[in-house]
Amino acid sequence: MSGGFLLVAVLAVPALGALAVAAIPRDLAARVVGTVAAALTLVVAIALLAGRNLGWVAYGATPPAVRPWHSVDVAWVPGLDLRFHLGVDGISWPLVVLTALLTLLCCGYTCWRVPPGGSGRALVALLLVVEVGILGTFLALDLVLFFLFFEVVLLPMYAIIVGWGGDGTGPAARRRAARKFALYTLFGSVLLLVGVYLVVTAAGTADIVALTGGTELSRGTQLAAFTLLAVAFAVKSPLWPLHSWLPDAHTQAPTVGSVLLAGVLLKMGTYGLIRVAVGVAPEGARWAAPVLGVLAVAAILIGSLVCLAQTELKRLIAYSSVGHMGFVLLGIATLTGTGIQAALIGNVAHGIITGLLFFLAGAIKDRTHTGALSELSGLRETAPRLSGLLAFAAVASLGLPGLAGFWGEAFAVVAAVEVGGALWITLAVLAALGGALTAAYLLRLLRQVTHGRPSAPVAGLKPGLAGAELAAWVPLVLLTLAVGLAPTLVLGVAEAPVTALVEVLR
Amino acid sequence: MSMVQSVDSVALLPAYLAAGTAVLVLLVDLVLARRAATVGAAATGALATIVAAVAVGAGEERRTFCVGADCSYVFGGRAALVAALVALLALGVLALSGPLLRDGTTPVGEFCFLLACSMTGGVVLGAAGDLITLIVAVEALTLPLYVLVGLRRGSLASAEAAVTFFVVSVVATTLTLLGAALLYAVTGSLHLERLGTILADRSELLDLPLTTVAVTLVLGGLAFKVAAVPFHAWAPATYDGAPLPVAAYLSTASKLGGVVALLAVVQHALPNDVAGPVLALVAALTMTVGNLVALRQRRTVRLLAWSSVAQAGYILAPLGALALADPDARSGAYAAALAYAVFFVLLELAAFAGVVALRPAGADGGHLDDLRGAARRHPWVGAGLAFALIGLAGLPPGLAGLFAKVTVVRSLLGGDAGWLALLVAVNAVIGLAYYLRFAALLYAPTGDAPAVAGRPARVVAAALAVATLIAVVVGFAPQLVLDLAGS
């Protein structure tokens, strides 16, 4: 099978799966079909690794900074400089696999339990559409196509929050949260649109491969383009102070929605920052790096401090995402090989761990019907397995060495120290302090939820876990261990493209 | 110079057919006096007009009624696009009128005759080569609508709407005519291309205050027709008072007519560095005011009316980038404006078709709450309406609307009007707020009081299906529209 075929299949399988799910009238059968489609997508996504074109045939004096393993390039709308140009390399592949995996777990979980609100098959269809949008964003090598896929995600996610979400405070709060999500992220993506066409009209091409390095763009264009693109991606990531849609959306979203949202949707922002903003406008990136670094550290500190004051389980995890994404952005802001590698592995680790945390939080809320930390305590007395998993995920999230969360945070700090200078050393110190705060709020969470005497909602819990729950969680637990013990799983494939990218940043 | 003009009847064929449709409808109504026959004659005539426009437009550009090099009737690719689209919209509106005509309170013959007359104006409009033909065509498009708007018998709102529309429109036409007369006084010409050449060659004419006044009057008068701010106040009241299908026609065919007329004068005749900044300002005001006011609307048709005011702003925006841009960027801007208009009228027609289908026969648009949960009762029609609304907001899966926005932003950035591009972007966010509210309402739980609504009329559902299908096709292949608009 050729690589181009695989690339198209990665998008076509979930898209056709969504259509099939919508067409099948029987609810359970449709959900199973959707899960099968998600599983096939994961298989195809992993297969992308095979037969990759590593021996890049250099044309011209300098090889391009983006060297996809496989690519497809077909004209679509020449009048708008839009080409159907897909490609995968070491930067995007781990995220593609992560997306396919989390979608599969979410679809499988939905086979077992459908959150109240709507039909299960509609939910599975929407999850698959979201998957198409996210995968397309990671695979697009054309700026306009990238924007297009970026937009695809918005409304299905809105529908998931409105249709199946809710934290028991009534439909108005749910609608408000969903609308906030939609408007905020649309604000980001229209800036992306303007930024994209600013670049396209100045450079005359939308090909990311040709544009990476930004050689043809004037300094003024690069500064303007980077500003627009960075704000656009900062909304999605989200970077403080543009994060306020995130806690509401997470609190109201159903479990599977939260998992996808935190697990991979946010990564579209950080991935876009690395691939598009930094790649296309390196001059602008160098100019804005200190600002980005300061904001990233502010996000780490503020996210952690806010977490210390949270009283609601899902909200706390949501705010912890702000802090974790701060580390990722700090890594990117250093513009060094170490920093960008840290960002990539931080991305993947956060996707795995926070996905797991949201699954567990959803399970706790489903059982106890409350998310208030004050009403939860003594989980380990009545549900030791659930409590153990929560402890594992929380410890992974706070960055214990040997688990996945460690590498991204530690090396983001290391990269900042490597850059040197008073500013970056200060940032590194503050970020490290933020790491300590992260430990503080996660341990506080564990103390409140798992220790103590069982509260009334917790007292009646049964200790067992459903098979579907285990099936959804075990892969994430194993991956947390695997990435933590062997970070080369991610870094091995990413090293060459990151080196090439850093090369053009010089 | 020969005083005998040769008339190219092939170029005029679509116009003949459109005018013939009107006459035929009148005769059929007189002789047979049967509803089905009258409507059938109108539909057949509209179809024939579409076919003729496509067939003639596929060939070379045809010019006729020429004096020397100046021609009053130029039927090229763009004229064919406009003619075919107006006839298509007339056909669609005819389909939407099915329930209205069936309930017996509306005179079928008059309705179809007036619609066909208006269609004739639209068909000629795209080909107009001089200011008089242009203004007459616009008037032929608008005049029958004064009566159509007032057709809801016994409705005070309808009568009010008709009077408002009539007064405003007549004043607008007068302004445009005065502007045309002043332009004639300055340049001694009425042919669009000749006007453009004269104003470009003799730049001292531009310093005359009279020229500026003339340009402003022409633009202002035509801005009334597209309901651009500050000439927009008639639109919401008129749309809301008119029967739903007529409101659909007003916000699609009539708006398209205004846009085409504006394009014609701006592209060929008027000096760019006078018209550009004026249009940029009008576009900026139009989209912002339209969107902000639409946020507060609680009546369905008023929401659509204000949103279509905002959409007119997006259409005009590329024309605002004219002043600074080079010729390439300019022709791109004209194409972008027309392409946006094409995408917009398709989606707008679909949106109106959805509303008509979900409302009882002959009813007005009602309140938004009347449509609560409608998509749960009628999943297909509801999905069509939601698709159109999302398209109007410019988001996937409404790819047609997304590409429309992309086209406009691209032409603005190509024309060094980055500030306007940012404004379009911000407005798209405001627009999503109300489109999303509307679309979400369709899927909201109905609560305890299920609204009584019969099955959607089949012919309306068919119109919705066709409009949605076309929107989906051009959504995946927007190059089709871009090519036609650019030709």
UniProtKB/TrEMBL annotation, chain A:
One of its GO terms (molecular function) is NADH dehydrogenase (ubiquinone) activity. The keyword Nucleotide-binding does not apply. It is an enzyme of class 1 (oxidoreductase). The chain crosses the membrane at residues 6-25, 32-50, 91-111, 123-141, 147-169, 181-203, 223-246, 258-281, 287-309, 316-336, 342-364, 385-407, 419-443, 470-494. Pfam families: Proton_antipo_M (PF00361). Keywords: Membrane, Oxidoreductase, Transmembrane, Transmembrane helix. Its EC number is 1.6.5.-. One of its GO terms (biological process) is ATP synthesis coupled electron transport. It comes from the Bacteria. Its main location: membrane. Residues 140-431 form the NADH:quinone oxidoreductase/Mrp antiporter transmembrane domain. It is found in: Endomembrane system; Membrane. GO terms for cellular component: endomembrane system; membrane. It is a multi-pass membrane protein. InterPro entries: NADH_Q_OxRdtase_chainM/4, NADH_UbQ_OxRdtase, ND/Mrp_TM. NCBIfam families: NDH_I_M. Belongs to the complex I subunit 4 family. This is NADH-quinone oxidoreductase subunit M. It comes from Micromonospora zingiberis. The lineage of its organism: Bacteria, Bacillati, Actinomycetota, Actinomycetes, Micromonosporales.
TrEMBL record, chain B:
It is a multi-pass membrane protein. GO terms for biological process: ATP synthesis coupled electron transport. It is found in: Cell membrane; Endomembrane system; Membrane. It is an enzyme of class 7 (translocase). Its EC number is 7.1.1.-. InterPro entries: NADH-Q_OxRdtase_suN/2, ND/Mrp_TM. It catalyses: a quinone + NADH + 5 H(+)(in) = a quinol + NAD(+) + 4 H(+)(out). The chain crosses the membrane at residues 12-32, 39-59, 79-101, 108-125, 131-151, 163-186, 213-234, 246-266, 278-296, 303-325, 337-358, 379-399, 419-438, 459-481. Residues 128-430 form the NADH:quinone oxidoreductase/Mrp antiporter transmembrane domain. GO terms for molecular function: NADH dehydrogenase (quinone) (non-electrogenic) activity; NADH dehydrogenase (ubiquinone) activity; quinone binding. Keywords: Cell membrane, Membrane, NAD, Quinone, Translocase, Transmembrane, Transmembrane helix, Transport. One of its GO terms (cellular component) is plasma membrane. It holds the Pfam family Proton_antipo_M. NDH-1 is composed of 14 different subunits. Subunits NuoA, H, J, K, L, M, N constitute the membrane sector of the complex. NDH-1 shuttles electrons from NADH, via FMN and iron-sulfur (Fe-S) centers, to quinones in the respiratory chain. The immediate electron acceptor for the enzyme in this species is believed to be a menaquinone. Couples the redox reaction to proton translocation (for every two electrons transferred, four hydrogen ions are translocated across the cytoplasmic membrane), and thus conserves the redox energy in a proton gradient. Belongs to the complex I subunit 2 family. This is NADH-quinone oxidoreductase subunit N. It comes from Micromonospora zingiberis.
